[in-house]
């Protein structure tokens, strides 16, 4: 039975899902799933290894060709059913997510709906996998371009968005006709297993969507080495992405990686300050700052610096931190003590170099909770300017002119997301085109939608998720030349 008051207790799963069956690890070993708010063990799931992962790969290989032969309409219908089942079970999925990840229940509900939007989008895109007819150089020849599924795909997903990061990868894979094996974070496997249960109910065939739980080394090693796996999609740190890329090199897999970020958030002196404040609150403190696209460096023009800082402090103090299940909670705990220690290290380093705490600044004594923090007088030499904090710390930098803001924003090896606020139309175009990032938000703190390409450049990754580009990552292009037609 579930330790949570779920309406459907069968969504609480403590086994991996391989070839349509709920199974334990061959070794019988398990790992604990811990609630970051309470430090309580809420589940134990299989600690699977290389052999367990090979079983999943072999099941996917068995179904690969039959599934590729299904019609686009059939695959779309499966995804439409999965989408509806996710929405129908929003409350249970949100409760599982809050229990294992910590975010507030309201925020978890929002993620369930966001995750479902990818399933709906790619159900529709399944019907739009178009090829081309090319003009031939001679009358006796015809040239066609076909789009075909890449083959078995693997998805290695993070703990910060345990539903959305799975649906954003699995839905396009299934829409394209690819079996997909999910390795969810060992910190948040319950959401993935619940999604697999709903996928099975939706009629997605055994072996097409599988979930392998456990620690990353053995599972990831097999997924990257095995030549039957033709595609790897990964969301996580740049360091791990670089390792996975090296491991995939021998089998030359198709890769799409969404890696670390260091997002600038630029506020020019002609900006709508209230709009910019609202944008910071969304971008910086959503999920406790544990997002790859959150504002990591807030650059404010000197003329409005003090005014902006005062308003940000005022609004930040209103944020309620607590257990995700508690009424009114807006920000839950960080995922674990290591995350808390990194936040404290960034704050301590900034203070030692002259930064000032305007609000917050100290981690709570009880577990993984951290107060939202605003720092002033932050400079480019500090750790917080050069590393992804992944926590609720808003560091304020000061700049004097447009070019300085652009130079500061681009002074990072990362290139995932950037934001800027201005009411000047000419400046809007100049800055947008000069920012070296895969996604740019003008007068908004949000760049994540199922209908728009999501991804970065430089050390922030390769490939795109969402939009039309998302399904192309799971398709191969084949040129078909026909001669002798005269």
Automatic annotation (TrEMBL):
Pfam families: Aldedh. GO terms for cellular component: cytosol. Residues 22-479 form the Aldehyde dehydrogenase domain. It comes from the Bacteria. SUPFAM superfamilies: ALDH-like (SSF53720). One of its GO terms (biological process) is gamma-aminobutyric acid catabolic process. Keywords: Oxidoreductase. The keyword Transferase does not apply. The active site is at 258. The keyword Transmembrane does not apply. GO terms for molecular function: succinate-semialdehyde dehydrogenase (NAD+) activity. Belongs to the aldehyde dehydrogenase family. NCBIfam families: SSADH. This is NAD-dependent succinate-semialdehyde dehydrogenase. The lineage of its organism: Bacteria, Pseudomonadati, Pseudomonadota, Gammaproteobacteria, Enterobacterales.
